[in-house]
Specification:
Mean pLDDT: 93
Helix content: 25-40%
CATH architecture: 3-Layer(aba) Sandwich
CATH superfamily: Alpha/Beta hydrolase fold, catalytic domain
Shape: globular
């Protein structure tokens, strides 16, 4: 029996959305957009080595109620790749420039992995600009040395040799159910990773993924406790970077934070179980 073809774009069939570029503080920045201007704004922020397509399965559902953006972070995807390390202050500055360029005075931020760390720092430094905060298997001050080393190894290998098998392995690391890494998902990455600028950029990207950087840019307990935005800490039972207990500890230190664990998912719950993620996520954003 022939397996039906699976497309990462299938979730956007019949959906009004756009791919666009904008100057975000001097950085040409690519993003996907759905929903209507004037609705409450939401920005999805992907993880290390990722790009806006991480949220293709979430744009339609969120776009019914919100003004939704998924960006390629500084140095990632098709966003410009300046020749310097992408350390936390630069990610925060880039996100602020992105919001300024779009005329968004406030937005909810939903960050996965590195994106969650960036969103947290933004909420600490620019609290007046954050409506609600979602930390999705967020990285930060927790240090899993084996996971850090594996992520660096897979990321560098995928850029140095963006072969099908290497890119597939990089994506399978994100998933609990490896069968979800279908050909079209793998096929979305070769052109991105084969950009000549990526060979230099991947080392700038991985500057945040050392024990030293984790310590230097760790958010303090006082800063976590000072986060004013209503916060959802969304974790999974098979995250390769941290245990459920690590997610619970994070939720415990943020005042009033809601903690939810999605079952049978790895590091990309918004993709692995989009239906459950969308339901939980939208309910939080609309109702708190």
């Amino acid at each position: 029996m022939t397996t039906p073809h699976q497309s990462i774009w299938a979730d956007l069939q019949g959906v009004a959305f756009e791919q666009a570029y904008i100057d975000a503080g001097g950085v040409c920045t690519r993003y996907l957009h759905a929903g209507r201007k004037g609705k409450p704004a939401l920005i999805f922020i992907h993880g290390t080595g990722g790009h806006a397509e991480a949220y293709l399965r979430n744009l339609e559902a969120h776009g019914r109620e919100l003004d939704v953006y998924a960006l390629d972070m500084l140095g990632h995807g098709y966003t410009a790749k300046p020749d310097h390390d992408y350390i936390m202050p630069r990610y925060v500055e880039h996100l602020r420039g992105f919001m300024d360029a779009l005329g968004l005075q406030r937005a909810s931020l939903s960050g996965e992995s590195l994106g969650g760390w960036v969103a947290s720092h933004f909420a600490v430094n620019h609290p007046q600009r954050v409506d609600k905060l979602v930390l999705n298997t967020a990285s930060g001050d927790k240090v899993n040395h084996e996971a850090l080393a594996r992520l660096r190894e897979l990321s560098i290998a995928a850029v140095e040799d963006p072969s099908w098998e290497r890119l597939k392995g990089r994506l399978e690391w994100l998933m609990y159910d490896k069968s979800l890494v279908h050909d079209d998902l793998v096929g979305s990455r070769p052109q991105i990773y084969a950009q000549p600028s990526m060979k230099q950029a991947i080392h700038h990207i991985l500057a945040m993924h050392t024990p030293e950087a984790r310590q230097a840019y760790a958010i303090t307990s006082e800063q976590w406790r000072a986060i004013a935005a209503p916060t959802l800490v969304l974790w999974t039972d098979h995250d390769p970077t941290a245990t459920v207990e690590a997610g619970q500890r994070l939720a415990d230190v943020i005042p009033g934070a809601k903690f939810v664990v999605m079952k049978n998912c790895g590091h990309w719950p918004q993709f692995e179980d989009a239906e459950t993620f969308n339901r939980i996520h939208i309910d939080f954003l609309l109702n708190g």
